[in-house]
Structure formats: C-alpha cells, structure tokens
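Reopening this ticket.

The earlier resolution said the output was attached, but the attachment link was broken on my side. Pasting everything inline this time so it's all in one place.
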Amino acid sequence: MKRFTATAALVLALLATAALADNYPLHFNDAAGHAITITAPPQRVVSLVPSITEMLLRIGAADAVCGITYHSVLPPEAAGKAIIGGFFHPDLASIKKLRPQVVFYAALQQEIVAPLRGRVQLVRLDINSIADAFATIRLLGRMFNCEQRAAAIVAGEQRQLELIRRKTTAIPAAKRVRVLRLMGRDSIMTPGDDSFQNDYIRAAGAIAPHWGKNGSVIGISLQQWREFNPQFIYACYGDKQVAELLRRPGWNEVDAVRNARIVYFPCDLTCRAATHCGYFTAWLAASIYPQWFGDPTHFVLPQQVVDTRPLQVDCPGVKQAQLVTSTIKDFRNKAVVITFDRPTRIVSTLEGERDAVTTLANNYFPPPAWGLGHQAALAALRASTLKVLGLNPEHTSILFTGADMDNVAVEKRSYRALQVVAVVTAGVHGNAMRMGADSGTFYPLNATDHNNKPGTINIILLNNARMSRRAMTRAIITATEAKSAALQDLDIRSSYARSARQATGTGTDNIVVASGTGPAIDSSGGHTKMGELVARAVYAAVQRAIWRQNGLVSSRPVFQRLRERDIDLYQLCRNWCDDDGDVAPLYARLEKLLLRKDNAGFIEALMAISDDVNRGLIQDDSAVDAWCRAVAHRNGAAATDNIPSLPGQPQPLLKGLAALLTAAATELD
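Inline output:
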C-alpha cells in the first residue's frame, strides 16, 4: 500500500486543485497523455473497460452508460446495457450507433478506437495499483458529478484495507506466505511486478514475487517457478484450465501444489482493480491465513452491532423489519431481522417446527469469514451470531446465507383478505444444482458439517393467514416449486454440469414459513389462492434477488449465456482450427456475428434444443443440420462438417457454432 503511482498522484493533485473551483470545466491528462476537458457531466458514455464500467455503475452514473462489453455483468445495473462486443475486439460500428460523447478505452484497444478520435472524447485511464483504482473512482466521481458516492466507496474499501493491515501486521516474517497469482491458457503465466495483482498480495500481508519484469501478464520459467516456490496460489474461475498444467513434473514440486493450497475467486474480483479492492484483499488474506484470522486473540474489532436501518416489509403482524450490520470475527455481517407483534408459530427447513417465535433473522456472513464460520458447528455459529445481534435464542429463528443482505428482495402479493410477503436472498454462482441429477458428497447423513455451509437461496414467507400445520408445511413445497420455476425461466445452469442441465436450486437453500393471525387457512397447494400468492411472491423475489446478487436476467447477452455453459469463444476458435496459427481474427469475426440479433437468437434457440435433447424430449434432431446450413448460407458461407471439439458440450449447439465459425472464416478468406 506504500506504492503510489504517477497516475494516482496526478489525479489526486488534480482533485485538490479543482476543489477550489467549480466542478466544471474539468481539465486533466489521461494515461495516453492527451489533454481532456469535461465541461459538463457526460450524458452518453461507452465503456470498453470492465473496471471503468464497474466504477461508473457503482458511483451512480449508470444512466449515462449506453454501451459496455459483454465481460461486464456486475453491478446488476449492467443488465440491459447495449453490448458492443468483447474487451479484445470491441465492434466499432456498434459503438458509433450509440452516438457516445465519451468512450473509455484501455491501452490494448488504442488502435481499435483510433478512427473515433476527433469524433468523440476518448479517455484512457490505466489502473496498475490499488491507489490508481481509488484515484480513478474519485476522478470519475468528479466527471459525473457523483463525488459523494465515489468518496464513500473509496472510504469503505480503505477501511477494509486498514483492517487487514492491522490483522496481519503482527504475523512474524518467518510465517509470511509466498503467494502467486496464476494465469495463462497453454502455459503458466503470472502478472508482472507492476501489476495491481501483486498489490493485492502485499496488502493481504503476504509475499509477492519479484520477476524483474513488468506487464499485466508475463511468462515465467520452471527455474523461476521453483526458486519462488509459492506456498499459496490463487486464480480466477476462468483459469482452472491452466491449473491442469501444475500436474507436470517440476511444476508440481512447489509447496502450494503439494499441500493443495490453490484457491479460485470470482473473475470480477481477481482480474480488475475497481470498487472492491478492500473486499477482495480481505477475502484473499483470510484464505491465506485462515488459522491466524480465526484465532480470537487476533481479533482487532469488538463484536457488536454497528448499524441498523429500516427494511420495508408490509405485512400484518410484523412489528419491525431492519437490516442490521454487525462485526463478527472482525468482518461485517448483515442480517434481515423481522420482529413480530406477538409470539408466532413457524416451520423452518433448518430448525424444524417452533412455537412462540418473536423474531426471524437471515444472517449474511461475507466470504472472508466463510472458512472461519465453517470451523464451528451450526449450534455454535447460531449461538455466537444471536449473541452479537442481541437476540433471544429461545424466541428467534435464524438462517445463514452467503448472499449479501444488501441484495435482499421483498415481494408482496394479495387477493381479497389474503396477503403474502416473500423476503428472499439468492445467489446461484458456485453451488447451483439440479436435484435428481447431481450428486451429494456429504456422508454419513448425521454429519454436521454439511449443514454449516452458508445458505444460498433463503426464503422467509410471511402472511396474514392463520395457517394450519399442514398448510405451513405444504407452503414449503409450493415455494420450492416456484423457486425452481424462477431458476429454470432464467436458465440458471447446474454448477456440476453447466453444459448439460439447468439448476433447480442450490445445495444450501432454506425456507421459513410463519403463520399469521387472520383468516384460517388449511391448504396452500397450487390449486388454492394461498398457494398462488405464495408462488407468485417467491417467483418474483427469487428472480429479483438473483439479479441483484449475480446480475442475471432472462434477457442477458448470448455471450454471457455461452460462458455459463463453459464455452470460451477463444478456445472454441482454437479447437475449430486445425493449426496453431493466430486465431484472433476468427475470434473477432465470430464475436461480430454474434452481435447480430438473428445469429444470437439462432444460438439461443439451439441452447434450448440441446437441453431438450439431453432430457430425451427430442429424439431426432436432424432438422438442426438443415437449419445450420441455412444460417451459414445467410451469413455468406457453405455448411461445414468441421464441428469443434468441446468435451461435454451438446451436438446441436456445437453444430450451430460451427455454422457461424464457417461464416467467420469465409469472410476472412
């Protein structure tokens, strides 16, 4: 954190000077050395850089962003934005159609955007350190008149960095861990010395490598690998393929591989320095030093509630609903706490049936605390959490989740005298699964560990009806069916076999149903009005919570849906070609073809056909061949028998992609 680049110093000096005058005009030099003048907040912006896109959406400038690359999924405000291609090959024509005033670009894209110079304001903001990220957030806040929100984001991330500094400062030098960020495709690569990736490692209290070479991605030799001897390796989910190379002789002879200390994190965190630098550093540090972080003697903050704010839950019998932020084991937990105006009967899939409950809670403990929480049994976790929240264990029913409580969704449905409210947290990345097809791994059944994972889709069902016991238990079935319908209508994929099947839920879902005091209800099945209200409220809340947590909507781009099926377009092009030549032109042309709505719809339809073939609902898919020939012809090519090889991927989808690959190759010829 002592490192402070020229870019950060320049931006902060600019801000200090500009603070003495009006916000506009704003003058600065960008990373390319060009003089930039902003006379008013830009109204139409295209961002080709995912880190800049994330910053713009989080500081409150989402309305100004009209175009992004398909690599930007979060924050959820990215949903619905026009896609102008990928990071490496953004489509110039698509950018021009959006008529932007400003285009943010990266150094790798300078030749692509060169034809736009003089027509729009081109701005390049390089981010090579955590300090750069914070300075850029502040600069964008100035540009878009969102200074307060930008300052709050930076302050929050800096607090987390300071917490990690305090927690790791006492670690003896001999116990500091050597950490390496793994990258690459066909060979093992890593960031250069000047990368923000190494800033993360140092900020986490660990030892980063020094290669004597700069760059965002560099190659290293086996000798360098052995000499550094990483004790902990981290990568993003997209790097799992290169991790297979660590099985090779020599490469497998380092401590991290021997001790299986290889951890994967979301690409949105590992591959950019944006608005979550402190959050990711905390997660990384806790993963590197789990024993140290879990030891109560190393806690530096008091375990207590630090903030409460109201949550709108409009249901008879609810006295109060709040979002409660607390510090537990040094990390910020967040809980929905719902208090009833009288003792209430509930049924919980985590705790069973209970009477005289006055409070329901759903507690989120963040990723840095996951490993720490899993060291305790469920009963101990429950007791310690309720103690910090100040809730009576005898009269409180609680759920636990790994979905951020800031993303909670509340949906209400009514019919005449009946009212139902669903309070839902949901996340589907990591452990989504299809029941009846995917396998469980915890055995024997009386093991307690399997209950100690954070719940992913948690549903609290409130209503004003006086429900019988069988109506309450039947509501669990109704809510579960609605949840599964919501996931299937979003085409959420199973984490166990993403190419083959949709998910019906996750492995850690829970439901609590609370009875009201109004009309007597003895049934909540699908044929009843109560069942309909339960299902509609749950369906809407689950979809909204997934959008807020994961940025997923039914209208998401075809590029994103292909990635969800483990289809990497670059690797697809590599597999389709017979030689080892440069596939970048083919990759760029394929992306351009998929930007066309007719081609995207063609691939999306084949996704649905592929699922039905896998389920046995389509016995003869030979009609797909004729359709593929027609699509290839429409795009200026003949049909091809050269089907790319991607293990586990269904043939109808691969045939469709082959048709577009043929068209892309034909145009290049």
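Reporter confirms the inline version is readable. The chain is about 40% helix and 20% strand. Residues 12-21, 445-455 have pLDDT under 50 and may be disordered.
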